[in-house]
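Hello again, I could really use a second opinion on something today. I owe you a coffee for this, so here goes:
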Amino acid sequence: MLATALPVAGPGPGPATIPPARLRVLGDAWIDEIRAVCPDPAARDSDLCANGDPVEVAFLWPAGDMRLTCDPAPGDPAAARLDAALRLTRAELSAAQHEELRRLLEGAAGGRWGAWVGSRLRAGRIRRKLYVEIAEGTPWHNWWPLAWLSGPAAATRLPDPVMAGFDGSSDGVEVYCRTPPLHPVTLAALLAQLGLPAATGALTGELARITGRAVRSALPGRDQGISLAFGPDRRIRALTWYSHADMLFGPADRAREAWLRAGAEAGWPMAGYAALSAPGPGGVPWHGLAGLVLGADGVVSASVTCAPRPWRTA
């Protein structure tokens, strides 16, 4: 149940607000991080989540890892949000990452949302990740993390790059692309091109287990995407396939039921997700992206994102 938003100290002018009852399940360290990154966590005009929330929580299983993504400037133009995100993450990034960022942004113009700030717990402390929009017209074609688009991956009908991620804890680069619905054969060809394990069957099998429906042709979900994570040595570390939770499960209450069932079957730690996604007066909180991760070691993981509040009804 969401309590009335209370004023707390924030990094911007004036007090920030946060709906504390829902987010308190994350613990004090995460609440402090939200306050440090997002000047108004109670805003309802953010482009981060479809329901307008400027805070989103991701859960990754079987590890039970939890991550935050925040809008550092809710309601502001894309350029202001990018500036805010750069200020909040600049000290986290390596010199090599700063150079990659410069190459990506050089000559870029405009953008719809600009940037987000991610936070994750690494080696006992919270580290930040910069997510940068690859806006239309950005000269990414000669940028090495997207060079695979010019090869046989064109079988995916030219994925559309939308975002780049720079994780200060890994010194790597991640690229995110929107794709048409992928067929397992196309996914298998892409894994082979990237040098990842031939694990299409494991990915589609886990997807079928979680959603409760078999994958017979294209992977489910009208809107899909993939992300590729590279290490500082430019070697591929992981591929993530994702789609929208409402396309895979339907309304948020069904998504919650499916994830809790799948987690119980597999013995995953579900307490944090169960607490954050618990129904409140407005229903179950909005669910965003759901995905599957294939690491270079062949391990398959599953993830879903969840906002603090349900879909807006007013």
The first helix runs from residue 20 to 23. The radius of gyration is 19 Å. The chain is about 25% helix and 25% strand. The first strand starts at residue 6 and ends at 8.
